[in-house]
Amino acid sequence: MIPSAKNCLQFMEKYRMLANIRAHSIMVEKVASVIAIGLRDAGVDISLQKTTAGALMHDIGKTPCLNSGGDHAAKGEEICLENHLDEIAEIVREHVRLKNYEPCAAISEKDIVYYADKRVNHDMVVSLEERLKYLLGHYGRNKKHLNELIRENFELCKLVEKKIFTKLSFGPDDLPDMIK
Fold first, then answer.
1. pTM of the full structure
2. 124 - beta bridge partners?
3. pLDDT in tens, the chain (180 residues)
4. Torsion angle of C-alpha atoms 65, 70, 71, 76, degrees rounded to 10
5. Domain 5-178 class?
6. Crossing angle for the helix pair 48-57 and 86-93, nearest 10 degrees?
7. For the chain, how big is the Rg over CA atoms in Å?
């Protein structure tokens, strides 16, 4: 099942999503929706409902993991599956890092949510470079291996960005002005 936006907000309440994480998720949804609508207008087969739900729910596992230190993407997938949200579980599971990414494959809702998440710092749309700098400072903290993984993930994100925006009539730098 794909939950409606209203259902997603109810899940946020049920799982006691912190206000700052909720604000981030709502902004990720706005970015993802602008991209999905642009892609649909360009003739790409994308589900706006699936993109919206995946974006709103992408951090559903984050609050429960704050104290435990667990993998919030895996926890989010678990929450989705427990609630019969199978159609967005993979989006939630792979929003941090895409697994088995194929540059030549069709653009998916999973790609859009993954990318949109990397463009939102807290509740503001930022460049990939700004988001990378924040993540390195916040999570990397002199941990060489983690810094390498974060940088590698952003190289993948640049490939996703290129793939997405070759189909759109606007560019990555236009996103902040397009979000209301």
1. 0.94
2. 121
3. 999 999 999 999 999 999 999 999 999 999 999 999 999 999 999 999 999 999 999 999 999 888 788 889 999 999 999 999 999 999 999 998 999 888 899 999 999 999 999 999 999 999 999 999 998 888 777 778 888 988 999 999 999 999 999 999 999 999 999 996
4. -40
5. mainly alpha
6. 60
7. 15
